[in-house]
Amino acid sequence: MKDFNRMWVDGQWIGGDAGTRPVTNPSNGQTITEVPEATPHQAAKAIEAARRAQPAWGALSPLDRGKVMHRIAALVREHADPLARLVVEEQGKTISEARGEVGGAAEFFTYFAEFARRIQGEIFPSDAPGEQIWIQRVPVGVVVGIIPWNYPAALVSRKVAPSMIAGNAIVLKPHEETPLSALYMARLFEAAGVPPGVVNIVTGSGSTVGAALTEHSDIDLVTMTGSIPTGKRIMAAAARNLVPVSLELGGKAPLIVMEDADLDLAVASAVTSRFMNCGQVCICNERMLVHDAVYDEFIRRFVAATQALNVGDPMLDSTDIGPKVSAAELQKVERIIQVAIDAGAKPLLRGGRPETPPVKGGNWLMPTILGDVTTDMAVMRDEIFGPVVPVMRITSFDEALRIANDSQYGLSAYLFTNDFARIMQAVQDARFGEIYINRIGPESLQGYHTGYRNSGPGGDDGIHGLDAYLRKKTVYANYSGRSPVGLMPWNGRKA
Ligand code: NAD
Q1: Average pLDDT over residues 351-378
Q2: Where in the chain is the domain with CATH 3.40.605.10?
Q3: How far from 205 is each of 5, 19, 361, 435, 440, CA to CA, in Å?
């Protein structure tokens, strides 16, 4: 499919009233196609469509909603190959990673469709006989979903699938640089029989269309994945209308390697966790804390394994690392490296731009490993989101834990050790929403992907992620046949 000049609103394929926007292939800098640029007015129209569509969708049995979702999952699997290639084209991750992402995009629909018979409430005894109190879960109503560029297919599913099974209607805005997967998936939603307005895909810039969606007064939830500054803006906008938000923001995951760790496992995990998707993953290994006793050996192996990675055309199965998503992102990471070196960091592996780019015109950056870093350096404190990792020598577990916790972020943390006491100490004292012990991500569908501190309030996945898409309704039911006499004395008083 190369026809991306329409977006999907209220079951119609419409153009953007603000014109079109080119989408660039990060591997070669070429324009792939143009997509609609919506106006704030069109964003508002999409919300109105969602509002109209939601009651009928919410009134269906969850099983019927689930049937549509199973059809979506089947279609995503059927289209896995073109969709994976599209992810590579617009975002630059390798084709093998893109296949994994698209598998995940299908699995979100299967997983959440299976909640059809599992969305449950509670019944409490009443204070009076012949009465019941129950709390049921009902749809929130209209959801706005805002997603970043690093997983342009999977993140569509991560927001749309729970919204659908909960009985909501959603307006989703993909990132302006990677809207193609979402538009492709909209065709599959239509083919699966998603009723008009239940899912709407609106494309355009964050500052106009994203802002119009999240500032709208007639919405019931904003679920956003992206950066901290945007998350703050969205939270402030939603607060004006008292709309709840669920924010999945950045991370600065520490990866701790203790002296008793399985070094083969730790090295392989650290490499994958740092360099997958060219380092552009919120739960990536962003700073390594390695015990002095194994530091030299770990670094020797880590540098060798990193040097062996193949930076190249992401469409090839043999490639390990593709380009950065955009020239702006590439320059941002180059600045981070330079600032760190100016502050005294020592390159253990000097990346930089390759002398001969694997493909001309792409945003190529080789992996960089920085030693001699200190905890006050920006490279140890701020999210890098690229193929660069600082590594620090630590001499005790307490020191590692203290450095790990001293962060504005609190999304994920990694620990490599076989010491049970240390594992339990980390479980108790590491202040992160996700702790991985002797393994790395990706996170699982049944987990709860949530961050502490500036990594954002809220979360996705599993029963707790789904809960954000539902609200609670308490019902007081009197079936005694008597007029209810409550606790208040005047209720029993004779006239
Ligand atoms: P970003 O914040 O620049 O953009 C995210 C989305 O917000 C885009 O769709 C953008 O158009 C929109 N947006 C921008 N301004 C807006 C506004 N004023 N109102 C409403 N919407 C607006 O983030 P990015 O650069 O696309 O993504 C990278 C960031 O995402 C990183 O910080 C990364 O850690 C984070 N991320 C987090 C997770 C997670 O689950 N915690 C997952 C992936 C990425």
Answers
A1: 97
A2: 2-249+456-474
A3: 15, 12, 24, 34, 33
pTM score of the predicted model: 0.97
CATH number of 2-249+456-474: 3.40.605.10
CATH 3.40.309.10 boundaries in the chain: 253-437
pLDDT of residue 208: 98
| Cα–Cα separations (whole angstroms), residue 485 to 124, 311, 475, 495 | 18, 75, 17, 14
**163 contacts: CB under 8 Å, gap ≥ 6:** 143, 145, 169, 170, 199, 223, 469
pLDDT value at residue 485 = 58
Instruction: For residue 414, give the 3-state DSSP assignment.
Output: strand
Q: Is 40 in the pocket of ligand 1 (CB under 6 A)?
A: no
- CA–CA distance, 106 with 74 (Å, rounded to integer): 7
For the question of residue 248 being annotated catalytic, the response is: yes
Q: Give dist(CA 202, CA 14) in Å, integer.
A: 10
CATH architecture of the domain 253-437 equals 3-Layer(aba) Sandwich (3.40)
Tokens of 417: 């050790």
Number of residues written out for the chain: 495
Share of the chain above pLDDT 70, in %: 97
pLDDT (average), residues 257-273: 98
162: Cβ contacts below 8 Å, ≥ 6 apart: 112, 460, 465, 466, 468, 469
Ligand 1 atom at shortest distance from the alpha carbon of 233: 18
Strand order in the sheet with 131-139: 122-125, 131-139, 470-478
Q: Containing H/E element for 409?
A: strand 409-410
Contacts of 218 (CB under 8 A, 6+ apart): 47, 48, 51, 142
Q: How far is the CA of 301 from the centre of ligand 1 (A)?
A: 34
Cβ–ligand 1 distance for 141 under 6 Å, the answer no
Question: pLDDT tens-digit profile of 282-327?
Answer: 999 999 999 999 999 999 999 999 999 999 999 999 999 999 999 9
177 is catalytic: no
